[in-house]
Amino acid sequence: MTEEIRKGLAGVVVDYTAVSKVNPDTNSLLYRGYPVQELAANCTFEQVAYLLWNGELPTDAELAAFEQAERSQRALDPAVKRIIDELPLTAHPMDVLRTAVSVVGALDPSWNDSSPEGNLAKSVTLLAKIPAMVAYDQRRRRGQDLVEPDASLGFSANFLNMTFGSVPSDVVVDAFDVSMILYAEHSFNASTFTARVVTSTLADLYSAVVAAIGALKGPLHGGANEAVMHVFDEIGSADRAEAWLDDALASKRKIMGFGHRVYKNGDSRVPTMKTALDTLIEEYDRPDLLALYTALDETMQARKNIKPNLDYPSGPAYHLMGFDTEMFTPLFVAARITGWTAHIMEQLASNALIRPLSEYNGPEERHLAG
Ligand code: CMC
C-alpha cells in the first residue's frame, strides 16, 4: 500500500479547532472568531489570554478576577531561581526557559490534575511566571539583580519593568502588548502541534509545554525573530541590503523572517506589527533601522516575491525595546503559552492518540548470517 506522503504534513488537515482560524485566501486570522487586528487595537493581552482559554472575552468582573490571579502568581519560587543561577551563560535563553518551566512543573504537587479547572489554573500560573523567568535571565546576563514583580502593573508593563528596572513610555508598553497579542495563537503551527501530540498521550500540561518550547526554538519557527536580528546585524545598513541578499540567495540561504507555510501572499499579522514597529522607530529615532527594514523587504519582493512574516517586524521591535537578541524567542513563548494551553485543553476535551503511519523504505527483510 503506497499512500501519498505529504512531507512536513503540508496541506494535511489533522483535526478541528475552535481556538483560531487562519485563512490564507483572505490573509486573516481570527481568535475565537475575532479578527486579531481588532483585538490588538482594542484589548489588552490579558483579555486576549482570557478569550483564548474561555472562548469569550471577559466581563469587567471576570477580567478583574483573572488579573488578580495572574498578578498574584508572578514571583519565582526560590528553587526556580537557584536552578537558573546554576545554568551557564553559554546556555541559550530558550534552554534556560525550557528548564525553568520544567522545574515549575516538577514543583507542582498537582501536576497530574488534568481536569479543565486544573489545567486552566496551571495555564494562568505559567502565564504569570514566564515573564519573571525571562526577565531574571535577561538581567543575570547583564550582571543585574532580579526586579520583583509589581502587582499594580498590567502584564506588559510589569514584564518590561522586571526586565529593565523601570516602566517605559506608553508607546513601548503598547507595542509590546500588541506583539504579545499577535504572537498568542496561530492554529496548528509546529510547536502547538507538538503540544497536542504530547497531550494526546495523556502526559501532563507541563510536559506538553516543555516540548512545545523545544519546537519553538528552531529558526524555521519561533527562532526566526532572533535570526532576523542577526541578519540585520550582518547587513549593517540599508545600502548593503541588495548585495547581501543577492549573495545570500545565490548560496541558497533561507532569509529569516520571510515566507510562511500557510500564508503565501502575506502574513495577516505583519501590518499590525509593522505599525507598532513604526511607533518605536519614531520613539527611539532610528530611521536607519527603518531604511534597512524597507530595503531588505523591497529587494526580497523584487527577487523572490516572498512576503515577510511576523518575525520580521517583531525582531527589530524587541531590539529597540532593549532586549538582547537571544531573548526574542523567549518573548514569543511568553505570548504563545496562551495558545499552546488553549490547544492542550481542547485536545484533552476530545482526545485521540496522535500516531500517524510511515511508509518503510529501508532494506528488505534480511537475516543474520549463520
Ligand atoms: N528565503 C528564501 N527562500 C524561501 C524562503 C525564505 N525565507 N521561504 C521560502 N523560500 C522558497 C524556498 O526556497 C522554496 O523555493 P524552491 O521551490 O525554489 O525550492 C519555496 O520558497 C517554498 O519554500 P518551502 O521552504 O518549501 O516552504 P515551506 O512552507 O516549507 O517553508 C518556512 C515555510 C517558514 C519554513 C520558510 O518560508 C522559511 O524557512 N522561512 C524562513 C524562516 C522563518 O522566517 N520562519 C518563521 C515562520 S512564521 C512565524 C513563526 O513560526 O515564527
Automatic annotation (TrEMBL):
It comes from the Bacteria. GO terms for molecular function: 2-methylcitrate synthase activity; citrate synthase activity. Pathway: Carbohydrate metabolism; tricarboxylic acid cycle. It catalyses: oxaloacetate + acetyl-CoA + H2O = citrate + CoA + H(+). InterPro entries: 2-MeCitrate/Citrate_synth_II (IPR011278), Citrate_synth-like_lrg_a-sub (IPR016142), Citrate_synth-like_sm_a-sub (IPR016143), Citrate_synthase (IPR002020), Citrate_synthase_AS (IPR019810), Citrate_synthase_bac-typ (IPR024176), Citrate_synthase_sf (IPR036969). Keywords: Acyltransferase, Transferase, Tricarboxylic acid cycle. It holds the Pfam family Citrate_synt. The keyword DNA-binding does not apply. Transmembrane segments: none annotated. PANTHER family: CITRATE SYNTHASE, CITRATE SYNTHASE, PEROXISOMAL. Belongs to the citrate synthase family. This is Citrate synthase. The lineage of its organism: Bacteria, Bacillati, Actinomycetota, Actinomycetes, Micrococcales.
